[in-house]
Amino acid sequence: MEQRYATHPAQVPGMDTAALRDTYLVERVFVPGEVTLVYTHHDRIVLGGAVPAGAELALPVPPELRSEYLLERREVGIVNVGGPARVVADGETYLLPNGACLYLGRGTRDVVLSDDPEGTGPGAQLYLFSAPAHTTFPNALVLPGEGTVRELGDQLTSNRRTLHQYIHENGVRSCQVVMGVTELHPGSMWNTMPAHTHDRRTECYLYFDVPEDARVVHLCGEPTETRHLVVADRQAVISPSWSVHSGVGTSSYRFVWAMAGENQRFDDMDVVPATEVR
């Protein structure tokens, strides 16, 4: 499991492009036939991807966690950004079409990920987001369209978007994880503007359905000392609590947003007017 250590905002001005990407961008989330995991010391989040590629993949047990199984002291949210998937958790089978979200609570011991044998088309690609858990909540599957749906933004400001909340305080319950998927409307490119921070939670973005010749320019850093990452399809960004996380694409795209930290209120954010961003 790759380790990414926590950073202080004062470090950002001294980073060049390579250092920024090495610190905050996860370029290889999905590797055929593997489960990849990255441990960020920001809120002790583990994120990664699983690509069964016709095989069955068990959730690994990284030695860095000093646990008998991955979810011994953790919970995980799983969003399928590929073809039909199957997840078997402690003998219970869940079928995940593209865009579905599965929550597995603390204490779920045996988890096997695979393609749905009844599915057609491209193989499954499962995005994993895990955080420490103090108690156990029930496992739950949310299919596309079943979560809380919010319409945000405006076409005039190029940020009209549909936000699907899956794991949150008024939906699937969890200890820390808050998770969902946002889809930009045609002609809209900004995923969040005005930008914001929430100095109580770390947030990670997984950008997907980005065309091969397109990119997303993701703003990061303190509001008065921003930098940017140029992000390709199915790459993830780690955004510390003190950092803005706002992006604009050269084409349409979707992204999985996921947070963990001090609270679970989606609207608990500190908005930064565009006139104050530097």
From TrEMBL:
Keywords: Isomerase, Metal-binding, Zinc. Gene3D superfamilies: Jelly Rolls, pectin degrading enzyme 5-keto 4- deoxyuronate isomerase, domain 1. Pathway: Glycan metabolism; pectin degradation; 2-dehydro-3-deoxy-D-gluconate from pectin: step 4/5. Its EC number is 5.3.1.17. One of its GO terms (biological process) is pectin catabolic process. Pfam families: KduI (PF04962). The keyword Nucleotidyltransferase does not apply. Transmembrane segments: none annotated. Zn(2+) binds at residues 196, 198, 203, 245. Its cofactor is Zn(2+). One of its GO terms (molecular function) is 4-deoxy-L-threo-5-hexosulose-uronate ketol-isomerase activity. It catalyses: 5-dehydro-4-deoxy-D-glucuronate = 3-deoxy-D-glycero-2,5-hexodiulosonate. InterPro entries: KduI, KduI/IolB_isomerase, KduI_N, RmlC-like_jellyroll, RmlC_Cupin_sf. It comes from the Bacteria. Binds 1 zinc ion per subunit. Catalyzes the isomerization of 5-dehydro-4-deoxy-D-glucuronate to 3-deoxy-D-glycero-2,5-hexodiulosonate. Belongs to the KduI family. This is 4-deoxy-L-threo-5-hexosulose-uronate ketol-isomerase.
